[in-house]
Amino acid sequence: MDDDVVAATLRAVVQSGLRAVLCVGEDLSVRDEERQNEFVAAQLAGALSGLDERYADLVTLAYEPIWAIGTGRTATSEQIKTMTLFIRSQLARLSLPASRVLYGGSVNADNAAEIVRDAVVDGFLVGGASLKAESFLAIVQACDDCYALRR
């Protein structure tokens, strides 16, 4: 799907009053070439430039590196934190500074607490780990424990 289709879809969704999750992320070749910031900035600009500010609250961002989706590979907390802070800087530049930023990409019961504690994310997009109740409950509990410390 190209940026124009993503932008048009996003606008149609939020103009209908629905909430949207915009996923951005790079594939492994982009990450290996250390071009992830440039790549994600282009995705964000393509989808969000010119979005009417009255719809900003309906948009949540998710950093989902393609190389970590369903592969069992997860970005390190430092990689997630660096990208989350970069995304937040781009959102501020696009006049959307209050948007939530989630992380998705092989989140599981073993890594959720570290990611939510260290990576400054607002939550997760959980895939396969949500299929087992015990695993999903452990992710929810890790988030609750970490957020309790922030309250």
> Strand count, sense and closure of the main sheet?
4 strands, parallel
User: How far apart, in Å, are the first and last alpha carbons?
Assistant: 39 Å
Into which percent range does the helicity of residues fall?
Answer: 40-55%
Strand order of the largest sheet: 1-2-3-4
Contiguous runs where pLDDT drops below 50 for at least 5 residues: none
Mean pLDDT: 89
The coarse silhouette is globular
Cα-based radius of gyration, to the nearest Å: 15 Å
Helix/sheet category: alpha/beta
Order of helices and strands: HEHHEHEHEH
Could you please describe the fold and organization of this structure?
The protein is an alpha/beta fold and 151 residues long. The protein has 6 helices and 4 strands. It has helices spanning 3-15, 28-32, 36-48, 77-93, 112-118, 133-150, and strands spanning 20-24, 59-63, 100-104, 123-125. The chain has a 4-stranded parallel β-sheet. Helix 5 (112-118) links the parallel strand 3 and strand 4. Helix 1 (3-15) crosses helix 3 and helix 5 runs parallel beside helix 6. The chain is globular and about 40 Å long. It starts with a helix and ends with a helix.
Keywords:
12% strand; alpha/beta; 151 residues
Task: Give the secondary structure arrangement, pairings included.
Layout: H1 3-15, E1 20-24, H2 28-32, H3 36-48, E2 59-63, H4 77-93, E3 100-104, H5 112-118, E4 123-125, H6 133-150
Parallel strand pairs: 1-2, 2-3, 3-4
Helix pairs in contact: 1-3, 3-4, 5-6
